[in-house]
Structure formats: C-alpha cells, structure tokens
Amino acid sequence: MPLPIEKEYYTYADYCTWDDSERWELIEGVPHAMSPAPSRVHQEISGNLHNQLYNFLKGKPCKVYHAPFDVRLNASKTDDTVVQPDLLVVCDQSKLDGAGCKGAPDMIIEILSPSTSRHDRIIKFQLYQKAEVQEYWTVDPDTKSLQTYVLDNGRYYATTYTEADIAPIQVLEGCNIDLSEIFAE
C-alpha cells in the first residue's frame, strides 16, 4: 500500500497516521515496508528466545517484548526513526509508554531472513550502534548461528556462537541462552 502522502521526509507523527493493516519501519525519515509474515522457523526461534528471556526476567525490573512493538530510537531528538525488532529488552521503565519504547532499549534481537538479512546486518547494525543500544543480536536460522554485538566506547564488538553454544547476555547479568533450545524444531 502506498503512503497516504508522498513526501521526502517523515516523522513519528506521520507514522502514527498510517494504516495499521501494513507494517512499516521509519529509518531517519525514510519509510521501509516490512516483509510479510515471518516463516514458521522464524516464529519458533522467536518464541524460544522469548520464553528463555521471559523466564529469566520474571520478578526483575527488565521486561522482554516481541514484534510488533514500536521502538522510537531518537524520540527526544528528530523523532524520525521507528523500528520493530523481533525481540527487545528494556530495563529503564521510564522509556516505556502506551505506544512502545522511547529511546534505545538495552538489547535488540533480529532474526534474519533472506529478505531482511542485509538490512538487519548493515542498516540496523549502524542504526542501533548510533542509538547506543547496548547489545544487539542477529540470529541466522539457516546456519543456526548467532552473532552478538556488545557496545563498548560507542562501537560494537562481535562474537559468534553456534547451535551447540550457550550465549551470555552481557546486559543481563547471569542470563545465558542455550542455543540448542533456540534452534530446536
């Protein structure tokens, strides 16, 4: 579906007027249509990750959310960027409002698909690093691997894990994700 008004630059105020029947992300004022519904494997991985995070976070101040969930990365500035990561963790409850998250969450997880892999690995990587998301994960269902990026002095540093590994979440002390359970079918 085309946007209701064609212009070169959009803000969150514009985004809020768009039809909810289609999903969009807004990256630095430029709208990006999101892919159709994710695959079954994508959904299983997302559910498995959510379950492990949810169970770890029970009774703790941090909360896990799954798509669709709006994250306004620069809400306090130009308010021209809204993303809908597959999963995210927010520990600062003041960043949450009725519409989603205002500012950078503590952690974002994107599950790669053929249609989004390049976007997630390049555009969103740069976007999340710039917004100072403390930890960013990309999960690759095809290779059953995980790339973690932890922010240190404004730059991401990567570590790769395979389905046989247990991956620690740096922003959640004591939280370790068993990847054999994440990739189990």
Describe the protein in words.
The protein is α+β, with helices and mostly antiparallel strands and 185 residues long. It has one domain: tt1808, chain A (Alpha-Beta Complex). It is built from 4 helices and 14 strands. The strands form 4 sheets. The protein has a 6-stranded mixed beta sheet with strand order 3-6-9-10-11-12, sandwiched between helices. The mean pLDDT is 93.
SSE layout:
Layout: H1 12-15, E1 24-27, E2 30-33, H2 40-57, E3 63-66, E4 70-72, E5 82-83, E6 87-90, E7 96-97, E8 100-102, E9 107-111, H3 117-131, E10 135-140, E11 145-152, E12 155-162, E13 166-168, E14 176-178, H4 179-182
Parallel strand pairs: 4-8, 9-10
Antiparallel strand pairs: 1-2, 3-6, 4-5, 6-9, 7-8, 10-11, 11-12, 13-14
Task: Provide a compact summary of the structure.
With 185 residues, the protein is an alpha+beta fold. It has a single domain, classed as tt1808, chain A, CATH 3.90.1570.10. The chain has four helices and 14 strands.
Number of helices: 4
CATH fold name, please?
A: tt1808, chain A
Question: Runs with pLDDT <50, length 5+?
Answer: none
What is the C-alpha radius of gyration, as a whole number of Å?
16 Å
Which structural class is indicated by helix and strand composition?
alpha+beta
User: What count of domains describes the coordinates?
Assistant: 1
What would the principal axes of the Cα set say about the shape?
A: globular
Helix share of residues?
10-25%
Q: How much of the residues is beta strand, in percent?
A: 25-35%
In CATH terms, the superfamily is: tt1808, chain A
> Which CATH architecture would you pick?
Alpha-Beta Complex
CATH class: Alpha Beta
Order of SSEs: HEEHEEEEEEEHEEEEEH
pLDDT averaged residue by residue: 93
> Biggest β-sheet: count, sense, barrel?
6 strands, mixed
Overall number of strands: 14
Provide the spatial order of strands within the biggest beta sheet.
3-6-9-10-11-12
- The termini sit apart by 34 Å
